[in-house]
Design goal:
With about 150 residues, this protein is of the alpha+beta class. About 25% of the residues lie in helices and about 45% in strands.
């Protein structure tokens, strides 16, 4: 995986923290779609920069609420704060386990989200977040093309 995507994706940190450090800006959350069945909650999200209207990450997450408390669940369902920031603020013991790294060619949806051309190469990862020693979150995290305006 080429730089700077290696820096952005090949690590065991929250993408919220990584994106904020890389872009030197706070990221904000936009929930595009969500679905909840019993204790399982899934959503499609975009992380954007606060100071510059630029999407820096597309993501899909699936969270098993049976491994967290009601306060954490409610903060996630509120849909205003990125997941990584919530888990850090709630001081939940967590471990991020990247499992697979991907090279993806943008389709119409990703190109629209990232404001880039069709068929542009972007990079992502599949990961699991363990909370308090149990698998809790399955993730697809795709970095926007760096330098795309």
């Amino acid at each position: 995986m080429p730089e700077p995507y290696r820096e952005l994706l090949v690590h065991n940190h929250h993408m919220t923290v990584t994106m904020e450090a890389f872009y030197q800006d706070t990221v904000t959350l936009k929930v595009c779609r969500e679905n909840r069945v019993d204790d399982h909650y899934a959503r499609v999200i975009l992380l954007s920069l606060e100071k510059k209207p630029q999407v820096v990450q597309f993501g899909i997450m699936r969270f098993d609420f049976s491994v967290c408390d009601r306060d954490t669940r409610d903060a996630i369902l509120d849909g205003t704060t990125p997941l990584g920031r919530i888990l850090i603020q709630k001081n939940i013991m967590r471990r991020i386990v990247p499992e697979t790294f991907l090279k993806i060619v943008t389709d119409e949806s990703l190109a629209t989200y990232f404001d880039c051309s069709l068929s542009q190469e972007v990079y992502g990862r599949l990961a699991v977040i363990e909370c308090n020693g149990q698998p809790a979150v399955e993730l697809l995290e795709v970095s926007a093309p760096v330098g795309a305006d």
